[in-house]
Amino acid sequence: MTGIDDLIARQQAISAERAREQATEAMIACDRLVRIYSVAGVETQALQGLDLLVQPGELTALVGASGSGKSTLLNILAGLDLPTGGKAIVAGHDLLTMKGKERLSYRRSTVGFLWQQTGRNLLGQLTAAENVMLPMELARLGRGQRAARARSLLRLLGLEQPADRLVSALSGGQQQRVAIGVALANSPSVVLADEPTGELDTQSADEVFAALRLANAETGVTMLVVTHDASVSEQVNRTIAIRDGRISTEVLRTTATNADGEAERQSQEYSVLDRAGRLQLPVDFIAALDLKSRVRLALEPDHVGVWPDRQAASTREAR
What pLDDT, on a 0 to 100 scale, did the predictor assign at position 272? Predict the structure, then answer.
């Protein structure tokens, strides 16, 4: 092995070790996750080597176009679907190796799930408190514990008054807040929410997301929220965009003091470089420079330059 080969090998080993350390610290860790569906003999690769780390206590938004893979990812993390390859570990549970009983226990106690449709979250013939107590009953908690925790959660979510009303008599926004209580009932490590404000008006959506943020702050539960709503994604410190089955960009938001001494919300968008060195350029960048099948790269002292392949473009025009 040459000196350069040895250096590359050592750098790769250090990178792999650091990746393992980060995965160990993370609440959600996906490593080169793959999900392939086969319908009528035609294979569709919904996830294409996706890498993702979500730290304990984070409230993170996941955005992407229809068919980008975000629902597939959420179903895998919820234990509702199995990946084809790679790794997915949530709160120490390896989702690829879990057996039937462990998977059932995982869905009951490790993750809480919030669907877009309230009918999938709640039983209309039960009261708000009874709905929140139901997961605890399945987990065999005592009646007194169930009642006390249900009241505590509904109080946190601003639903103390309608706790004894049938959920079918509540507004859509109130129903989704009850559904948050159901998701939190068994003190999960992670709450996954699939478009939780998608069927609500603006005011109700704001109330539901405010309840999610409050629950995250008060309980410390890790939350991953799929949303198409830009106003929702802008309220979190981290927004992850998924495209073609891989994480493409992240927006990180911080609060800083401006020149006038006032607190100001700042955001920065990053493209995500995966462990194989792949990078998805933003679509508007590609369109602006008319980038096609290949590009030219140049390593500069502090950045990498990317240029369209003008020679290839000239060849296409000549044809």
Answer: 86
pLDDT higher than 70, residue 312: no
CA distance 142 to 145: 5
Q: How far is CA 285 from CA 40, 103, 292, in A?
A: 37, 43, 11
pLDDT digits (tens, 9 = 90+) for 48-61: 999 999 999 999 99
Question: Which of 206, 184, 188, 186 has the alpha carbon at shortest distance from 197?
Answer: 206
Encoded amino acid at 317, one letter = E
Could you tell me which residues come within 8 angstroms of residue 129 by beta carbon, excluding any fewer than 6 positions away? 147, 150, 151, 154, 163, 164
| pTM score, whole prediction | 0.84
Tell me the per-residue pLDDT of 76-89, one tens digit each, with 9 for 90 and over. Answer: 999 999 999 999 99
Of 180, 224, 171, the residue nearest 200 (C-alpha): 171
Structure tokens at 235: 């309220």
For residue 47, give the nearest of 32, 65, 61 by alpha carbon: 32
Q: Which two structure tokens, joined as six digits, stand for 148?
A: 């006390």
